[in-house]
Structure formats: C-alpha cells, structure tokens
Amino acid sequence: MSKLAFISARLLIAILVLLIAVGIIFTGDGNRIVLIVLESAILAVLLFNKRIRGSRAAKHFVEYKESMIMAIGTFKAHKLRSFLTILGVLIGVSSIIGMVSLIEGLNGSIRNQIESLGSNVIYVSKYKPGVVMGNRGSSERNRPAIVFEDALAIKRYCPDVDGVAPQNYYRKPGGNIVKFRDNQARNPAFFGTLPDYEEVNNFYVARGRFINYNDEKYRAFVCVIGADMVDAIFPGIDPLEKEITINGDRFTVVGVMEKRETVMGSNENNFVLIPYNTFKKIHPEEKELWLSVKARSPAVLQDAIDQITDLMRRRHGLKYTQEDDFAVFTQESLLEIWKSLTQAVWLVMIVISSIGLLVGGVGVMNIMLVSVTERTREIGIRKAVGAKRSTILWQFLVEAATLSGIGGVMGIIVGILISQFIALVSPLPAVISIPWVIIGFCFSVAVAIIFGLYPAARASRLDPIEALRYE
C-alpha cells in the first residue's frame, strides 16, 4: 500500500468515524442500532478490502473512535465551557447556511422568472440595465429616446424578428390610482402596448381576452389587469366588463392576466395595460419606450440581435467608429446583472462567517491547550506504555475536530431554521443547499484541524518522564 493511499485511507476513516460520533449526540438510544450497523459496515470494508487488509487502517479506526468518544465525554462533562468554545464555529457555519439558503432561493426564483419570459426574447432600451453609481455621463444622458417608429422599423425590416411589443409607461405624481366603486388600488404600473405583447413576452390572459387590433385602431378605452388588481378592487366580484377609473379616465376591463411568480414583494401582477394608441391619446407627452422583441426561434436569436443593432445604428445616424447609443440585451444579461448584485451579499457572508470561524478556532485552540494541561499525566502514561508521537497527535486532532464538528452540526441546524423562519415571515424564498451543508461541516472540521494542530503537537512532544511527574 503506497504512502499516499495510506494517508488518504486514514483521513477517510477519521471523517467517517467523526460522522458516527457526532450522530451519537443527536440520536437516542433507540437509534444506536443504526450507528452500530454503520460502524460494522465500515469495519467490514476495512477488514475485507484487499488494499487495506493487513494494514493498520482497522487499528486506526478503533483509535479514532475512542478519541471521539473521549471528546464527546468531555463535551458532556463541561457543557457550558464546550458550548462557549464552539459558539464561534456555530455562528460562522449558521451564517453560511442561512445566507446561502436565501441567496439560492432568490437565484432560483429570479432565474425562473426571467426564463419564463422566453429564451428568444430581446430587449431594446435607451440604457443598458444595471446598477449605476452616481450620475450618468453627458453622453448617456443625451442619448436619443427609443420611440414607436423604432418598433415599427424593427418589425418591418428585421427578417428574423417575429413580433415587437413597445411598452410606454406613465406614473402620476404620487402614484397611479385605480378605482372601482369604493375600492381603490394605489401605485399599479400603467402602460400602453400592442396586441403582440402576449406572444412576445410569453404572458397570457387567464380570463377574458387580450387587447386586439380593433381596440388599437379605434383607440378603445379597454384594459387588461394583473392578477393582484382583482384581489385589490374586485374582491369576490367578476371583473370582466366592469368599468374602472385609472387616474380619472374610465376603462372597461376585458381581460385578466395569468399570475406570475413574484420576487421580494415585487409588483409583477399589479398593473393595468391599455392599447398603445389609446395611451398615446391620453398621454401624448410620453415618448420614450421599452421594446420587447421576439426572435423567430432561439436558433436565430443572435442574427436577430445583429439585425436590430444594425438597424438602430442606421436610424440614429451612427458612424462605424461610434459606440451604440442604445442597449440591446437578452434574459442572459438580466441574469448576469442579478449575479453581480448578489456578489456583495456573498462578500458580506464570507466576512461574517470568517470572523465567526476565526473566533471559534481560537476557542478550540484554547480549550485544547487546557485539555493538554489537564491530561499531562495521562499523556505520560500512554507514552510510557509505548504510544507514539503520531498517535498522541492524531488523538488530540480528532478530539478537536469532533468538538468543532459538533459546533458545525449545530450551526447547520440553526442556519436552516433561521432561513426557513425568514422565508415564512417574509417574501424572501429559501432553498437548502446540500453541497453548502457539506461545505459548512467541512469548514468546521478544517478550522479544528488548523487551530488544534499546535495543542496536539505540544501534547505529542511532551517528555514522558516529566509528564508522569506532573501533578
């Protein structure tokens, strides 16, 4: 058996026995049989595997097991001291698990919401989406607006474009107000669009109908409302064909959109949309648009982007040396923006968890130094009867890893409980990440090995004669 294979087997045994020993603390006597069966299975592998049979692996298994039992005994005998020692590890691991659960939940929710828009949707706007620090430069502020004529040109001259849905928004000072009888909804989004909006945005009516080209042609005062608007102003009432007022203008409800998944309390379902020409009649002062464009298929998505970019550059009179004064992007760009926003959260998580694990590591080192001092005579006796330095070293390292591993398991439980509680009382989703649970536990053990190395080395270097004299 090679030296590398032997070391790997030794570490594997230590980790397996650590998991068994930690499990003893969190299981009752009724579950001991499961642990015994697991332990027997590991021993069987060690004893009957051809590569390990005849080596010292089985002997080390028993030694590590005894070290862990001693560490658990110390934990039970000095509960308060041991708990305060591993408190830093507990805080560090729980912060990792809690924050990762929330971040993963948000990532999944954002990803699902963006992917629901469709894989072949392109967006055209005046500015590229993202977080802007400070004021925009003069070149950005002076960019020409995206106008309705741009939408018509894209639909006409871009062969790989299947549909265009311009969206022109209006917000009344103080917020839009929608009323039905005595019921009122404040601050819904209010915009005008074309009948292609459904197909382009992969977002359809659940009841009634969507606006059509007759509504657009005759500037009809009809509207389609979001699902949240029904709960706000039509409690227990069928909203179809009912007349509502939007900022004082009367509209007839002809449809209700399907409910979309929301993230962090966003108002994805709190809106009113009307035919574009009707919107232009009410608010002729609103010129700037946001365009949603649908490519004919995902396969020609990049071709459609190139065609739109080339057309917009020609419409804006840009020379080949000038940069674009507009933005063309897809859902992948939106995902990248979200990932960049979560990087700050990851940084905070790393700082908090690092401080907790550092404090926990110092605590583990302190209690292990105390343990070495208290058991100096025991170490002397073990050395006197033939124990090697490596045996003493591993004994104290395993004890430190067990102690910190207990803190890691407690931190995992606390982190999961915190994340689930936050998800219960807030709109923030939480998803338990099994890989990060394993990483959190491994971090707790690694901290113990790093900070427990000095006390373990100090114990292994004790002179047996001097240790036996120690009182």
Can you describe this structure?
The chain has 471 residues and is an alpha+beta fold. It has 3 domains: 1-56; 78-110 and 339-469, no CATH class; 144-325, no CATH class. 58% of the residues lie in helices and 14% in strands. It contains 16 helices and 12 strands. The protein has helices at 3-25, 32-48, 57-77, 79-115, 138-141, 148-157, 197-201, 213-217, 227-233, 276-282, 301-315, 331-374, 376-384, 389-425, 434-460, 464-469; strands spanning 121-125, 161-170, 177-180, 183-186, 189-193, 205-208, 222-225, 243-246, 249-257, 271-275, 290-295, 327-330. Strands 1, 2, 3, 4, 5, 6, 7, 8, 9, 10, 11 and 12 form a 12-stranded mixed sheet that branches. A hairpin with a 2-residue loop joins strand 3 (177-180) and strand 4. Helix 1 (3-25) runs parallel beside helix 3, helix 4 packs across helix 14 (389-425) and helix 6 crosses helix 11. The radius of gyration is 33 Å and the shape is elongated. The two termini are 43 Å apart. The model is unreliable at 20-38 and 40-48 (pLDDT under 50).
What is the topological layout?
Elements: H1 3-25, H2 32-48, H3 57-77, H4 79-115, E1 121-125, H5 138-141, H6 148-157, E2 161-170, E3 177-180, E4 183-186, E5 189-193, H7 197-201, E6 205-208, H8 213-217, E7 222-225, H9 227-233, E8 243-246, E9 249-257, E10 271-275, H10 276-282, E11 290-295, H11 301-315, E12 327-330, H12 331-374, H13 376-384, H14 389-425, H15 434-460, H16 464-469
Parallel strand pairs: 5-10, 7-9
Antiparallel strand pairs: 1-11, 1-12, 2-5, 2-11, 3-4, 3-8, 6-9, 7-10, 8-9
